[in-house]
């Protein structure tokens, strides 16, 4: 898991043309790192980086749910830069709406990107990280990967899957010197809540007025989020540089506070249900 200090680190970042991914790529290029950045549109990525020196950038157009494309991207990044040190699985989008109004197509599309896409990258890059005996994989989840709110059911379900994948992966690769961190951001001042990155489910029944109100409130939120994307980008580098640290890393004071509250409520539930849980064992 040793972060290189005698050469530029090589980062592989998915979902690089918007949001935290874009902020991270800008930060890394500014530090002189080498960056392989995946996007569905290289033109959009390069336009977003028009004020940044891109000589150390490899822009890759990749459909992350296509295993062949992902493997080719990992191979091209490795051939270009010699190796990969840090992987950030960041690609994704938001979706808001009641569970009842979430279509099968919505579910499949979300899991294709958030889960299958992440899994494809991990499978493609792990052989070289294991062989090197070093490297770090960061899977970007969300605070709603720890606790779910009304209207966020599908997004939370996908992020809960990323959390489970990350916990298992961390235990599997620890002996190979490969680090794993699941990153749980709160609200950051990015385009995540705009029409470019946020999908709404089709609800014509008005059966859940509270969710409709929440969606309206979120549409007004851009520009008021507490999180600074530039500081988040610096935090990713801090995570990569440390030799040990928490498996779950929150970003943002809102995320940290909510995670602490979730831990307290989960413990309270466990204690309240302990007697019934133990009652289901065989009596020996």
UniProtKB/TrEMBL annotation:
InterPro entries named in the record: KR_dom (IPR057326), NAD(P)-bd_dom_sf (IPR036291), Sc_DH/Rdtase_CS (IPR020904), SDR_fam (IPR002347), SDR_oxidoreductase (IPR051911)
UniProt-recorded Gene Ontology molecular function terms: oxidoreductase activity
Keyword line: Oxidoreductase
SMART domains the UniProt entry points to: PKS_KR (SM00822)
Source taxon at top rank: Bacteria
CDD domains in UniProt: 17beta-HSD-like_SDR_c
PROSITE patterns assigned to the protein according to its UniProt record, in alphabetical order: ADH_SHORT
Ketoreductase domain mapped to chain residues: 9-186
SUPFAM superfamilies, per the entry: NAD(P)-binding Rossmann-fold domains
Record has Chloroplast as a keyword: no
UniProt key word Translocase: no
Protein family according to the UniProt entry: Belongs to the short-chain dehydrogenases/reductases (SDR) family.
PANTHER family in UniProt: SHORT CHAIN DEHYDROGENASE, SHORT-CHAIN DEHYDROGENASE_REDUCTASE FAMILY PROTEIN
Protein name per its UniProtKB record: SDR family oxidoreductase
